[in-house]
């Protein structure tokens, strides 16, 4: 029943997130036939002052690169991180702010169990959100005369969800540090989303920044194969997630209401 | 086990402020024990420590033999003891039916007979979302969710707060029937009349300390107001006897609040040539007000 | 509480309590018994006043004694269970237990193990004897005081007759 409660509490956020992810995926698929002619024209122009991103030729020629670049490397990933943070906030401190913590704590449930049930639902929801494009993109691509392999969609979704789990961990931890009903959300967004976006922009320009750029890791190679998977990095990020969850658990046990 | 709740020098300090200090409580099985105190006297802090919401700064407490400051044992306490805090808010996105199902899942000893009986008597609409319920109905629902757990010990913080007289009487009746079945009830209340009606033991806290710990019968039997008319000049110190809590002198009338030893006090009054000595009983409200004043 | 009673058809033995306090209750069926006991709880016992100077247990004891004396609770009537009376009057069960214990030691009621509390058979008579004895003592004291004031026995007798014939004689009980 704890899982049920965690689900009901995050249900609308999840549904809105699913709608947003679906809309975003369809949007970029539909943009493809509009953007490609523009880019081709741009490439054809031999203007030395025109900005030509290095990926542009590949983007023009390969639909799969285009999808990867705009979704898994860029906008969808940003949206997903935002949603992951939004879905992970909550917990006993928030219940304290809206007055139900006395009832929750009257139940024979340890603080760890409260945290685990909430985090578990958050992981499930974020994974489902990460996999929505795997369905939506191939289906929508048919309407623009393209095809996108479902396997790639799932692989990228899984990578994003697994590496992005660190955002769930940090958000869960901050939810138990900051008091208030919505304050933790706002602060977490400011603390995580903003630097994340800044880091991502910076990594585009500076090559060594990519090594610490989690966004880069989440995106992976544009065509994922078993060989390409950065296993070591994934393990390290997961350990980081576990660390934050451990800190959250410890903080949860120490809280006084 | 005879004692369901006992604390040993239980204390809580917030920085410099000592909210609760050296509290030694004992509640016996089968008792309906009232916990009285002014707002800010330390009642809520004490209850929060018992519930495991706060950790004591010093001292210890046991409920049903289990420690209140150890999380694993505290969870086991909550399996057998039901708490209703002062804030009776519930998950307002759930309906009455949903929260019943939710709560029931944690208590294998849930009393479905009591649940349906109380739903009917308290007139709670099953399909209604909790956010749409009035404050009184929310209180009744919170109490129902505790009463139906099949617990052997109930800790209630202001159970009848905000309830109309009919609902209040119903809640008191339910408390009485729980006690008649062998459960123990520990409740805090500002409604002294209710306390007098159903409690058999009184614990009074003032400024974080226990100032009264006695069966209600003994209080009613022993506390007296002694009024003497003495025509010679008298002073407060003339009546500094064991048992005299307060002395008021107005002209020839000496009025005393006496907690025990009434005979000795009457003797003293007669020795001071009192023309008349009258002894009258005190209501619990008067005793409460005087005890709080005397402990300053 | 009364609505519960009114919505159930009162069996003849229960009705007899309502109509006439003289006939003893002889419940025949389980429901009959429950209704009768419930009715007794609701009508014979008044809710005590916790704020009066008199302790609750004394108030209830006095109510029961009075009910037995007036015949509202006839000899052999079953009293409500401790739990039932506590719930009806909304008072602590320990208080009810104490009341029943005190009355049992007085001889006013009998507690039959496993069955419940019943009004004792011969208590009314004993109470009357006790009361006559205390009345006799009172009269003796008053007469002595009046004689000390200087009155003759004739004058005292005339005073007593005037006093007792002034009011309608209270309906005597055999």
What does this structure look like?
The complex is a heterotrimer of chains A (257), B (296) and C (174). Chain A starts with a helix and ends with a helix. The model of chain A has no long low-confidence stretch (mean pLDDT 86). Chain A has eleven helices and no strands. Chain A is elongated. Helices cover 76% and strands 0% of the residues of chain A. In chain B, a hairpin with a 2-residue loop joins strand 1 (3-14) and strand 2. In chain B, helix 4 packs antiparallel against helix 5. Chain B is elongated and about 75 Å long. Chain C has 174 residues and is mainly alpha-helical. In chain C, a hairpin with a 3-residue loop joins strand 2 (109-112) and strand 3. In chain C, 24% of the residues are buried. Chains in contact: A-B, B-C.
Could you list some keywords that capture this structure?
heterotrimer, A: 257 residues, mainly alpha, 11 helices, C: 174 residues, Arc Repressor Mutant, subunit A, 2 domains, 3-stranded antiparallel β-sheet, elongated, disordered N terminus
Outline the fold blueprint.
The complex is a heterotrimer of chains A (257), B (296) and C (174).
Chain A: H1 2-44, H2 56-61, H3 63-72, H4 75-88, H5 92-97, H6 101-104, H7 111-143, H8 150-175, H9 183-205, H10 214-219, H11 231-254
Helix pairs in contact in A: 1-3, 1-4, 1-7, 4-7, 4-8, 4-9, 7-8, 8-9, 8-11
Chain B: E1 3-14, E2 17-23, E3 26-28, E4 32-37, H1 43-51, E5 58-63, E6 66-67, H2 71-80, E7 81-84, H3 96-104, H4 112-122, H5 135-147, E8 153-157, H6 165-180, E9 184-188, H7 192-198, E10 201-206, E11 209-215, H8 216-222, E12 224-230, E13 244-250, E14 253-258, H9 262-271, E15 274-281, H10 284-294
Parallel strand pairs in B: 4-9, 4-10, 7-8, 8-9
Antiparallel strand pairs in B: 1-2, 1-3, 1-5, 5-6, 10-11, 12-14, 12-15, 13-14
Chain C: H1 2-7, H2 12-19, H3 30-43, H4 56-70, E1 78-79, H5 82-89, H6 93-106, E2 109-112, E3 116-119, H7 123-149, H8 153-166
Antiparallel strand pairs in C: 1-3, 2-3
Shape-level CATH architecture of the largest domain in chain B: 3-Layer(aba) Sandwich
Q: Which sequence of SSEs, written as H and E, runs from N to C of chain B?
A: EEEEHEEHEHHHEHEHEEHEEEHEH
Q: What's the arrangement of strands in the largest beta sheet of chain B?
A: 7-8-9-4-10-11
What percent of residues of chain B adopt helix (DSSP H or I)? 25-40%
N→C terminal distance of chain A = 23 Å
Describe the largest sheet of chain A: none
Number of DSSP helical runs of chain B: 10
Structural class of chain A: mainly alpha
Q: What is the name of the CATH topology of the largest domain in chain B?
A: Rossmann fold
Overall strand count of chain A: 0
What's the number of helices of chain A? Answer: 11
Helix percent of chain A reads over 70%
Using the alpha-carbon principal axes, give the shape of chain B: elongated
Q: Strand-residue fraction of chain B?
A: 25-35%
Name the largest protein-protein interface in this structure. Answer: A-B, 21 and 33 residues
Secondary-structure-derived class of chain B: alpha/beta
Described by strand count, sense and barrel closure, the largest sheet of chain B is: 6 strands, mixed
Strand content of chain A: under 5%
Domains of chain A, number = 1
